[in-house]
């Protein structure tokens, strides 16, 4: 049986160069980068170099990159530490389709008395700038809108949303976990204040990521303790993973165009094969989306059943719905884009990576046909 991994929006395989770059720091050069003696210099130099490499990939300054344990921590930091930082403005605006790392951080600050507004999206998952203009006012402290959605891939009009936010003197954060390393990002050009990223989404190791914080942004530290990360996020640095993250990100940025072309080609092939097979489905998301993130809703199917049947055929995908004994629960994203129930329940997300092949696409479609036409 073929083994086909097509859940890259959940996590990606570790790049071999990134893996090799980690090894010396796990074995020989294990020094603590905060120490003064010469043995720690290799770790300290590697930390500095990784910060420079990562900053270059998003056109930031090295001192604007703060290493974290991943996307969830970066999102928690951005939301909570901005909410409780200085100033009279308090309200936060986000969208209904954010990842739970943002939504649940927002719920936490709401419980502490901070007002949060959750913007609706249109049927393709886009936050309309006009809607933000309607909600934003002088009480808004921060707007946090994800760069690209993890379930349907939709890319947001970040520059426009950021402009509107700044016109009211508020800060703009974006959860770019699904975007960094996949599409070009220039933080200076976009003029955003904060950006979250996670290495395991771009072929780096798990449990490492970063938060970009524009110089001068008022935000409280995430963790108090040692002086690491410019005194903003204490704790001995995970040098091996940081180094690997830099290698993976630089490599992904260098091959972005060719990988993207490859994924778009595979996606076109899959869509045309599904249409030829005369399966009744809709494709969710907007035309402007992360290459290879394919959300499909099959009429009168059960997403969880599809996931398990595909799993038995060696194919790993995600679903947009979960069953309990009585009901099928549709994800908050599919609800927000108003996919009708008879389609939404049968949603799967196929997210492709550079190592996927045409042969695998044929196999996935054949497998879907076997399951759905039975
Ligand atoms: N934000 C988005 C959009 C994501 O897709 C994810 C992971 O799926 C996260 C945040 C959380 O990232 P991490 O797994 O690094 O904590």
Automatic annotation (TrEMBL):
Write down the superkingdom of origin. Answer: Bacteria
GO MF: cysteine desulfurase activity; iron-sulfur cluster binding; metal ion binding
Enumerate the spans annotated as Aminotransferase class V domain: 4-361
UniProtKB keywords = Iron, Iron-sulfur, Metal-binding, Pyridoxal phosphate, Transferase
* Listed cofactors: pyridoxal 5'-phosphate
Which Pfam family, an example, fits this chain? Aminotran_5
Entry's EC annotation: 2.8.1.7
For the protein in the UniProt heading, the enzyme class is: transferase
User: Catalyzes what?
Assistant: (sulfur carrier)-H + L-cysteine = (sulfur carrier)-SH + L-alanine
**Similarity comment: family membership:** Belongs to the class-V pyridoxal-phosphate-dependent aminotransferase family. NifS/IscS subfamily.
Q: Identify this protein by name.
A: cysteine desulfurase
| Lineage, opening ranks | Bacteria, Bacillati, Bacillota, Clostridia, Eubacteriales
